[in-house]
Design goal:
binds flavin-adenine dinucleotide; alpha/beta; 460 residues; 7-stranded mixed β-sheet; 14 helices
Amino acid sequence: MSKLYDAIVIGTGQAGPTLAKRLSDAGMSVAIVERHLFGGTCVNTGCIPTKAMVASAYAAHVARRARDYGVVIDGDVRVDMKSVKARKDAISERSRTGVEKMLRGLERCDVYTGHARLRSAREVAVGDQILTAGRIFLNVGGRAAVPSMPGLDQVPFLTNTSMMALDTAPPHLVIVGGSYVGLEFGQMFRRFGSKVTIIEMAPRLVQREDPEISMAIQDRLTSEGIDLRVNARCIRLGGRAGAITAHVDCQDGSPTVDGTHLLLAVGRQPNTDDLGLDAAGVSRDERGYIVVNDRLETNVPGIWALGDCNGKGAFTHTSYNDFEIVAGNLLDGDSRRVSDRIQAYGLYIDPPLGRAGMTETEAQRSGRKILVGKRPMTRVGRAIEKGETTGMMKIVVDATSREILGAAVFGTGGDEAIHCVLDTMYAKAPYTVLQRAMHIHPTVSELIPTILQELAPPAS
Ligand SMILES: Cc1cc2nc3c(=O)[nH]c(=O)nc-3n(C[C@H](O)[C@H](O)[C@H](O)COP(=O)(O)OP(=O)(O)OC[C@H]3O[C@@H](n4cnc5c(N)ncnc54)[C@H](O)[C@@H]3O)c2cc1C
């Protein structure tokens, strides 16, 4: 069976559904195809469920610290993992069904469930259906990377996807990978009652951050009783369900880490291997990401790639921004480009890290003359009042142009406070504009103008 459309969207991640809606609203006939769960990674196995679980872990943490606030809890604080999971599942489900309902309610959009594969630059096969369109949008996302590691075929392991099914806290969770996904799961399960060991081959966690931010994060996690093994490459896995051993290549510490459960958090890979890209002539890079230009067009006219699968971003907001870029160019006569966006992301441990633009290290490497402002959260009134003084804030500016180059807010409310810096960067305003802004007291953001009044050349 064959059907002709104006546009086909493959994948219902963070770009596809809103794009399908815009195209349909613009009068085009649209087919959208989803092979698994509506809403993709963010909704089902990424941002939404993990942040729901982070919230449960935070509640447990605060309850254990209740005495610090003069609150008495008689008896133990216990975590009911079945309820944690049920809450998380309900939040994800609401979002998933919302996406599906929205799509099925569109006037000119047909929803197909099944695996979509390109047959040519104009044709997509879904089961025995052939869909044809002059415009094809790929929003196929990615999945957890599973490296080829000796022994991995012998031991059971978890990924961010299978973690979602846990309704008990593993007695000892061993996490391979000390970056965003590994740290979020690590801290939350520690707070749920697991013993947690994180193995990271680099000398420090979250390597892309400045060393002082990484160290502050490390201090926070170790203070909560998480065992960190940095400078330790996992070279072999052994054991069996409930008793796994990670053999590590390291200079210090034991060459083995024993635990009950293993989580692999070593990065992501795009879902492009089974998409029929070759049949359509669409180019991929050596890591499998679809090659796109600044307007997210692939090398084949009429085919675009949006979201994680194009390698231009790895976040929900970058995928959504991809939708805005494509829709802007195609439907609004706007000229939007990927290169217009400023890098920004959050790390949702507690306290969170909010990041915008360059790190200090990157700014220094760029050869610019820079000024840096910093403040520990112990000198932020709002943090003191909340009893959450872990972390620091840091802003980097170009001494010559007075542009803000980047910022990191690792501390309570850091994921929100970063936005005043980010928006000033988007406005291309000099830092002096933000320096003179009157912010609300008591907030974390109120100290950002103060930090900008105390800028100094970097220490080295
Ligand atoms: C544990 C974890 C936590 C995260 N937390 C955050 C966070 O806090 N903030 C943030 O911004 N980002 C976070 N992310 C990243 C975020 O989830 C992704 O960047 C985002 O979901 C990317 O969306 P996407 O649009 O590229 O595609 P995806 O959401 O991956 O969706 C792609 C969809 O395409 C479907 N599909 C794939 N191939 C086919 C095919 N051939 N046929 C039909 N359908 C197909 C898939 O089933 C899937 O539904 C997190 C990720 C993980 C793993």
